[in-house]
Amino acid sequence: MSKDKFIAYDLGTGGIKASLFDARGASLAETFRQYDTYFPMDRFMEQKPMDWWDGVCRATRRLLEESGCPAEDIACAALSGHSLVAVPIDRDGALLSGQVPIWCDMRASDQVSSFFKELSYEFWYKTTGNGDPAETYTIFKLMWLKEHQPDLFHRIHKILGSKDFVNYKLTGSVCTDPSYASGFGVFHLLNWDYEDRFFEAAGISREIFPPIRPSDEIIGYVTAEAAGECGLCQGTPVACGAVDNTCMALGARGLEEGTVYTSLGSSSWIAVTSRKPVIDVSSRPFVFAHAEKGYYTSAVSIFSAGNSFRWIRDHLMKDYAGDTDTYDVMNRMAKAVPPGSHGVLFNPTLAGGSAQEPSPNLCGGFMGLTLGNTREDLVRASMEGVAMALRRTLDILKRQVEIQGDMLLCGGGSKSAVWRRIFADIYHMPVLKTNIDQDAASLGAAALAANACGLWDGYGMIPSLHRKEDHLLPDEETNAYYEKLLPIYEEWTQCLSRLGDRMAGLR
Questions:
Q1: What are the C-alpha distances in Å from 450 to residues 19, 119, 235, 251, 506?
Q2: Is-contact 390 262, C-beta < 8 A?
Q3: Closest among 254, 267, 233 to 45, alpha carbons compared
Q4: Could you count the other beta carbons within 10 Å of the beta carbon of residue 63?
Q5: Which one of 35, 277, 358, 436 is CB 3.0 to 4.6 Å from 51, fit for a cystine?
Q6: Helix 417-427 with 326-335: angle, nearest 10 deg
Q7: Fold classified for 5-240
Q8: Average pLDDT of the residues in 494-506
Q9: Distance between alpha carbon 176 and the CA centroid of its chain, in Å?
Q10: Carbohydrate kinase FGGY C-terminal domain: which residues (predicted)?
Q11: How many CB atoms lie within 10 A of CB 478?
């Protein structure tokens, strides 16, 4: 038996992907398990931590069975996890809440107002780099819990992030890493540690936050109980892992200064790796600590990308519901429509505005519809709308940091050749797709596992694992047309934001 393989888990918003890698970083097999998100009230978005654990167990067993890999060959496991989550456990390690708010939950607006009476927003943002809407960050979720569920809150021994909860179920170890901690709303980016002034302003004890350990450190070993549930061997090492943004940045380009990628998944962001965090109070890029101390991944985002495209599929393509290749049909439709979608624009903001957009109350919509437009126009417009929304955020990032080279597309949307062409023409920069595409976060987690158990020494080999599959230069004529559309899109977005604010006042 040779312990020369790794399991990497990508714990995303839509489900858990378990991937098997060999010692060279090659992906051997993968499997996916979906889980649900719950919306009990307006601005509430929750998931069940035990669904994550059940997904990990089921995915692991299926992965090992279908790949034929003996569990004894697994040298280490590591997780990438979606951010800004607060999972409460008591002193006995029992889960205190069956459902917890996830990254996009926005319920804590009153707590945000209270916090910034104690400290200035500018000081907090410049220290933490937490540029998403403040309501989404963990410390404010805990303030809400303290106010609205005090009995539960006072039973909390520790709170854990998404991947940290799974690590706890695997090993019994209670900890987090710098990248996940940097999304708690209480992390000092430059000091690489918690900042006591934020706990004081929030009225939350520092003691309930987990200790911070390096992303590529072994934090424990699979327990007998966990082995019985998930199929890994008892004693399998588990690395601390990292937040999804950091794992994706690591898997996308390693630790190379100035490299940039677009993650095109349910939500979408553009991120750059650098030794200096990109901080700007007016545009508020969000920053996470990277996998290695002294590096950061700074990003701008939209909350709806693939999920808006999925909404188009579910509501405009119902006659193809029995067709497993509905997205292929949509791609063919989009390809048959010229740039500009015969005058139709689409704003993809179906899940509220990000910090880089004019208002959290920004809502999506179509503009320019006439009796002559077709469903095909709407499908292409939806793809162009996502790219235009991201181009807005890319321009914000470019004003703060020098971006050179290709834009690497990662995530499910990168599989679409039509979408890649649209991105190249709207971004006005070369777009690269590699074999990694949806596996960037998984590769990042696998690299953490490989370093944790000593089979790798650093992350220098990651770029060599990318094999070019498509490289598109922008078409100058098409870009010139899009450049004329973009100011119209921008003005319309501002109008939608103002109207969204008025509508929110009527709720």
A1: 14, 41, 16, 13, 53
A2: yes
A3: 267
A4: 22
A5: 35
A6: 50
A7: Nucleotidyltransferase; domain 5 (3.30.420)
A8: 94
A9: 17
A10: 261-452
A11: 18
In eight-state DSSP terms, residue 154 is T
* 61 — pLDDT class (breaks 50, 70, 90): very high
Inter-axis angle of helices 306-316 and 375-398, nearest 10:
170
Report residue 167 CA to chain centroid gap. Answer: 19
pLDDT above 90 coverage of the chain, percent = 89
Domain boundaries, the chain: 5-240, 254-304+396-472, 321-392+476-506
Cα distance between residue 164 and residue 167, in whole Å = 5
CA distance 441 to 427: 23
Single-letter amino acid code for the residue at 148 = H
Determine the pLDDT at residue 267.
Answer: 86
Residue 152's H or E segment, with its range, is helix 150-153
Q: Cα(342)–Cα(347) distance, rounded to whole angstroms?
A: 16
Instruction: Write the Ramachandran bin of 180: left for phi over 0, alpha for psi from -120 to 50, otherwise beta.
Output: alpha
Closest of 244, 264, 245, 246 to residue 407, by C-alpha: 264
Q: Which of 405, 437, 404 is nearest to 420 (CA)?
A: 437
Residues 6+ apart with CB under 8 A from 154: none
Which fold does the domain 321-392+476-506 belong to in CATH?
Nucleotidyltransferase; domain 5 (3.30.420)
Q: Which two tokens stand for residue 505?
A: 């006042």
Angle at 18 between CA 411 and CA 435, to 5 degrees: 40
**pLDDT at position 328, please?**
95
439-465 burial string, b = 16+ CB within 10 Å, else e?
bbbbbbbbbbbbbbbebbeebeebeeb
Q: 236 and 229 in contact (C-beta within 8 Å)?
A: no
- The closest of 426, 175, 130 to 278, measured between CA atoms, is 130
Q: At 356, is the secondary structure helix, strand, or coil?
A: coil
Given this model, what pLDDT does residue 399 score?
84
pLDDT > 80? residue 322: no
Interval 326-342: pLDDT, tens = 999 999 999 999 999 99
Q: 198 in helix, strand or coil?
A: helix
The CATH number corresponding to 254-304+396-472 among 2.40.50.1070, 3.50.50.60, 3.40.30.10, 3.30.420.40 equals 3.30.420.40
Cβ count near 488 (within 10 Å): 13
Question: What ranges in 268-350 are assigned the alpha helix state H?
Answer: 306-316, 326-335
**Closest C-alpha to 488, from 368, 375, 396:** 368
- pTM over the 0.85 mark: yes
What confidence score (pLDDT) does residue 412 get? 86
